[in-house]
Amino acid sequence: MGRVSTRPLGPGGCRTMELSPPEFRAPEVIAKELARYLEEQIIFGNFAPRTRLVEEDIVRQHKVSRSPVREALRMLEQEGLAIRESRRGVRVSPISVTDLDEVYACRLVLEGLAAETAAKNRTKQAVAAINAQLQDLEQALQRQDMSAFFRQNVRLSQAIYDASGSATLKRLLSSIGKQALRYRYIAYSRAPEMMQVSVAANRDIAQAIAHGRTRHARVLTEDVIQRSWQVIRGVIAEDQGASTGTSSQ
What is the pLDDT of residues 34-77, one digit of tens each? Predict the structure, then answer.
């Protein structure tokens, strides 16, 4: 909050007051930027599950004070990307079939509802925005640029959320968004064929939204999420099986 300051008595003996602008709080800005960087490292698998996020190491590596680092780690915990364990500090959240099922059970319902609501509340501007993002997604597929494809796929999803016009729905999707992104990246990085599946499905979803076919938009969205869900489940099970086999040797 800005400070209140007073001026000398003005004409008529009245003292005037003014509000100074709020102070710039650099630590908050640094914390948000640092959290964004750490989020990407986790989502893209550069920080493996259960990796310890050591406060001192982050301070030294990024040349920042402890305050923004602690705030950034707190943000990661709120997003479900990190967990704080007693006497063990903060670690990257583990990936598991159980967690996947919990996240995707919510995503299935919410994203299906978002597509349905987007078809119901569509505007010309919203449909144009979805089609523009879809075109960029198709170009990323043509280049076989998996990282760009992933980022563009997220932008396309956001365009559909925006088209729904529901602030509450967008807030709920945001609450599981970062956790879901980890699993979505696994789908594209470990099963590249899902990129082609995604483009074809999103093409149909965009058409359903444009033509106001509400139920069709929802069903198509739920179908592609179900398919991705099963692919990711298989990858995680395979990894866990390989890990168990290694440890038993």
Answer: 999 999 999 999 999 999 999 999 999 999 999 999 999 999 99
CATH class of 26-92: mainly alpha
Query: Which pTM value belongs to this model?
Result: 0.81
Handedness of CA 38, 44, 49, 51 (dihedral sign): negative
186-206 per-position pLDDT tens digit: 999 999 999 999 999 999 999
**HEC states along the chain?**
CCCEEEEEECHHHCEEEEECCCCCCHHHHHHHHHHHHHHHHHHCCCCCCCCECCHHHHHHHHCCCHHHHHHHHHHHHHCCCEEEECCCEEEECCCCHHHHHHHHHHHHHHHHHHHHHHHHHCCHHHHHHHHHHHHHHHHHHHHCCHHHHHHHHHHHHHHHHHHHCCHHHHHHHHHHHHHHHHHHHHHHHHCCHHHHHHHHHHHHHHHHHHCCCHHHHHHHHHHHHHHHHHHHHHHHHHHHHHHHHHHCC
CATH topology of domain 97-238: Four Helix Bundle (Hemerythrin (Met), subunit A) (1.20.120)
Segments making up each domain of the chain, as ranges: 26-92, 97-238
